[in-house]
Task: inverse folding
């Protein structure tokens, strides 16, 4: 039974996400204990494939752990690479949904996005998106990072795209992407070190 962390849970919709090793699994209210429906709660769960999607089931609270976001970190030096290291490892932070590597550096995140697209590393690319990210393609809106990455997998299935220089205007970062013989403008809105909105 793997261990994970509750990324978020919405009591109104009865849906949430469990995070483990950089991957998130959807969970429904019927599959998670009421005590574990708290962001940052440490949980045990099983993974089951339902309708082609891996989901968290049998989610139970990891007893003896703090569950409140007000109780801060789970341990400052957990995961430290050396005993003399000071500070905390980013994966043990009290807000693990935020990628501190790109916090305050949206242009660097977009450059990393271009590098991963060029390498065709879409499984790693999904980690640059917020779970509720939105992709706008013409009049179509695609919601959720997995759906966004699946759509890009379809759009970039041919020759590898090449990204040009990035430019920023009014909080939106734009790049030109060469796809085959054509050029495509891609714009990003970044918040807390993750892509939250993208236009293609």
Result:
């Amino acid at each position: 039974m793997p261990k994970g962390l509750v990324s978020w849970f919405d009591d109104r919709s009865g849906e949430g996400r469990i995070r483990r090793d950089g991957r998130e699994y959807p969970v429904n209210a019927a599959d998670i204990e009421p005590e574990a429906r708290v962001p940052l709660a440490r949980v045990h769960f099983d993974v089951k494939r339902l309708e082609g999607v891996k989901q968290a089931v049998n989610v139970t609270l990891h007893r003896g752990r703090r569950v409140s976001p007000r109780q801060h970190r789970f341990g400052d030096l957990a995961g430290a690479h050396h005993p003399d290291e000071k500070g905390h490892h980013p994966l043990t932070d009290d807000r693990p949904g935020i990628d501190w590597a790109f916090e305050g550096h949206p242009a660097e995140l977009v450059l990393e996005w271009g590098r991963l697209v060029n390498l065709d590393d879409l499984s790693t690319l999904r980690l640059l998106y917020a779970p509720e990210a939105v992709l706008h393609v013409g009049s179509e809106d695609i919601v959720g990072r997995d759906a966004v990455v699946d759509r890009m997998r379809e759009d970039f299935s041919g020759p590898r795209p090449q990204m040009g220089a990035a430019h920023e205007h009014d909080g939106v970062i734009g790049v030109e992407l060469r796809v085959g013989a054509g050029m495509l403008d891609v714009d990003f809105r970044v918040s807390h070190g993750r892509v939250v909105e993208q236009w293609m």
